């Protein structure tokens, strides 16, 4: 099983091969969790997104078109995870949890936010933190991850025009905040 690449493992998962699924998870879960943690500092949300992602992989492995469809297995997996993460963040924004008084509240900024604040200064970091979450998500994808408009569109599940307009609004808002 270890000699098979991820694309072949996905084809076997599509045929309900549990051993192939286990091997795919063993190979891909460490980097996927790491990449999700770069975007979200909430370990509970990352764990939930991981579970949802691999459940979706198990159910939809047959829809993976492979290299002939223009994508890699890792890219397909990341697209599913990124969409699940965005969905989880939207859900949390609509239904914020009221923290229990008995539980300590831990407020940890995302690693990307810490890196941005440390490398570009407090003023820019503060301006970035005031951006609406949907604008920040576009900037993170395009600037930090280096994705194109099309890739950002796929990652966030948005039309390309929406990505472009949000990127333009984010730049304008940042420019005004720093003037």
What does this entry look like structurally?
The structure is a single chain. By secondary structure, the chain is mainly α. It folds into two domains: 6-94, Rna Polymerase Sigma Factor, Chain: A, CATH 1.10.1740.10; 111-178, Winged helix-like DNA-binding domain superfamily/Winged helix DNA-binding domain (Arc Repressor Mutant, subunit A). Helices cover 72% and strands 0% of the residues. The protein is built from nine helices and no strands. It has helices at residues 6-14, 18-39, 43-60, 73-94, 111-120, 122-129, 133-144, 149-156, 160-178. The longest helix has 22 residues, at 18-39. The model is unreliable at 100-108 (pLDDT under 50).
CATH topology of the largest domain: Rna Polymerase Sigma Factor, Chain: A
CATH top level class name of the largest domain: Mainly Alpha
**Are there runs of 5+ residues with pLDDT below 50, and where?**
100-108
- What proportion strand? under 5%
Order of helices and strands: HHHHHHHHH
Which structural category fits the helices and strands? mainly alpha
The mean pLDDT is 80
Number of helices: 9
Tell me about the largest β-sheet: none
Provide the gyration radius in Å.
Answer: 18 Å
Distance between the termini: 58 Å
Number of strands: 0
Q: Could you estimate the helical fraction of the residues in percent?
A: over 70%
CATH superfamily of the largest domain: RNA polymerase sigma factor, region 2, helix turn helix motif
What's the shape? elongated
Compute the number of structural domains.
2
Q: At CATH's second level, what is the architecture of the largest domain?
A: Orthogonal Bundle
Organism: Paractinoplanes brasiliensis
Pfam families: Sigma70_r2, Sigma70_r4_2
Domain RNA polymerase sigma-70 region: 24-94
Protein name: RNA polymerase ECF family sigma subunit
């Amino acid at each position: 099983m270890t000699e098979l690449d991820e694309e072949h493992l996905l084809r076997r998962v599509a045929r309900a091969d549990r051993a192939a699924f286990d091997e795919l998870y063993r190979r891909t879960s460490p980097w996927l969790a790491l990449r999700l943690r770069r975007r979200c500092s909430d370990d509970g949300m990352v764990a939930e997104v991981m579970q949802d992602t691999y459940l979706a992989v198990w159910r939809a492995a047959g829809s993976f078109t492979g290299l002939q469809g223009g994508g890699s297995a890792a890219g397909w997996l990341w697209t599913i995870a990124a969409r699940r993460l965005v969905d989880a963040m939207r859900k949390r924004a609509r239904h914020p949890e009221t923290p229990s008084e008995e539980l300590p509240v831990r407020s940890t900024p995302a690693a990307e936010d810490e890196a941005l604040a440390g490398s570009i200064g407090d003023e820019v970091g503060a301006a970035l933190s005031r951006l609406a979450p949907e604008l920040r998500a576009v900037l993170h994808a395009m600037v930090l991850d280096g994705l194109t408009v099309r890739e950002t569109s796929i990652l966030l599940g948005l039309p390309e025009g929406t990505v472009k307009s949000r990127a333009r609004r984010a730049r304008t808002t940042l420019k005004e905040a720093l003037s």
